[in-house]
Amino acid sequence: MNALRAVFKGWIKRYPDGHALVNDLENGQTEIREKIVYRESVSPYASVVLGFGKHKGCRLDEISADYLEWVLENFDDLWPETRRAIERYLNL
Fold first, then answer.
1. What pTM, to 2 d.p., does this model score?
2. Across residues 58-76, what is the average pLDDT?
3. Domain boundaries in the chain?
4. How many C-beta atoms surround the C-beta of residue 19 within 10 A?
5. How far apart (Å, rounded) are the C-alpha atoms in residues 32 and 44?
6. Cα angle 38, 65, 2; round to 5
7. Residue 47 to residue 1: CA distance in whole angstroms
8. Which has more pLDDT, 16 or 31?
9. Residues 43, 25, 11, 41, Cα dihedral to 10°
10. N or C: which end of the chain has fewer CB atoms below 10 A?
């Protein structure tokens, strides 16, 4: 579910009106298809454990994509390794 949420959030950012998304899907744009296929497989970053906050001790795949995106947007002092792991897990 987190994978789908992350994909849809990415689409909303990239295609705010939705019409371009429908056109790209109908034309078989490979970038969108590759992201979906990647997120369906188990990400190597899914097992990364957060060491802070209300989800301290939880793996990335146990945390909602909304919360992980909130962390990226609101924590300027986030460890670079943690930031990269979250971004790669969400496929951003």
1. 0.55
2. 91
3. 2-90
4. 9
5. 20
6. 50
7. 16
8. 16
9. -10
10. N
- For residue 72, give the amino acid letter: L
Tally of CB atoms within 10 A around 15: 16
Query: What tokens does 78 get?
Result: 């986030």
Query: What does the CA dihedral 10, 14, 16, 17 come to, rounded to 10 degrees?
Result: -120
**Structure confidence at residue 31 as a pLDDT band (50, 70, 90):** low
Say what the pLDDT of residue 72 is.
93
The alpha carbon of 27 is separated from its chain's Cα centroid by a whole number of angstroms, namely 24
Q: Which two tokens stand for residue 20?
A: 């371009």
Q: Is the pLDDT at 57 greater than 90, yes or no?
A: yes
The rounded distance, in Å, linking the Cα atoms of 44 and 89 is 8
Nearest to 89 by CA among 76, 75, 58, 24: 58
> Cα-flanking dihedrals φ and ψ of residue 51, to 5°?
-110, 20
